Amino acid sequence: MIKALASLALLSFTFTLSDLPGVMANEAPRDVVADLAPGGKLRAAINFGNSVLAQRDPAGGPPRGVSGELARELAKRLGVPIEYLPFDAAGKVFEAAKARAFDIAFLAVDPVRATEISFTAPYVVIEGIYVVPNGSPLRTNEDVDREGVRIAVARGSAYDLYLTRAIKRATLVREGSGPEALKLFVSDKLEAAAGVKQPMVAFAQEYPDMRVIPGRFMAIEQAMGTLNGRPVGARYLRKFVEEMKASGFVANALKASGQGDAAVAPAAPAD
Questions:
Q1: What residues contact residue 22 under an 8 Å CB cut-off, 6+ apart?
Q2: Residue-wise pLDDT tens digits, 44-78
Q3: What is the CATH number of domain 2-124+222-264?
């Protein structure tokens, strides 16, 4: 597993300071640094499979989007360089957690993932929706769970994990990433595809013979996380995320990356 993960195209950059407003320059305690960056650098897993949170820089620079901005701000506070570990699907990030191949990650909260990752409260809430062919008899989210319906999903995604528990009659058809699942949906003429709202809406606009089912089948709570067994670092991350939401950092990062319609998560209850 570790050898396979090492074959990923890892991108390393010296960290740059965020220019976004609402940032306080707080130096992290030494025990936090030791917990979150035990190797002397912060290894940040970036999931480019979720375009709401992360986008590749066409010029080959550091990742764009709220995930990259949060990672850079955290590295600044820890006083360590940052290494970006790029992935094209959330399920692959979770597999990397099993090999302890990163220090922080940006994933949707899920009980399955919590077996390996200590999550913060969410910082962004996005929606899981369905796309179906225009002529489909499926009109509501509840309609989708019926015999004979095949739903294309990205393997190991938050909506795959959720639908695995929630779907009783339909069949989930899994591919390695969101784009691959949509490609299968079209090529194999599946009855539905599930995914994150923003890219799914864009897909339906690109394919006029497809339509979005109104509403959502789930709210996807996106959070930061570190590997289990790092209690000091996990506690610091929870406070860090709450500050980033309250200061406007998260909202500004979403807006700067063209994702201003994504909802900043509400403040978490005090410990």
A1: 247, 248, 249, 252
A2: 999 999 999 999 999 999 999 999 999 999 999 99
A3: 3.40.190.10
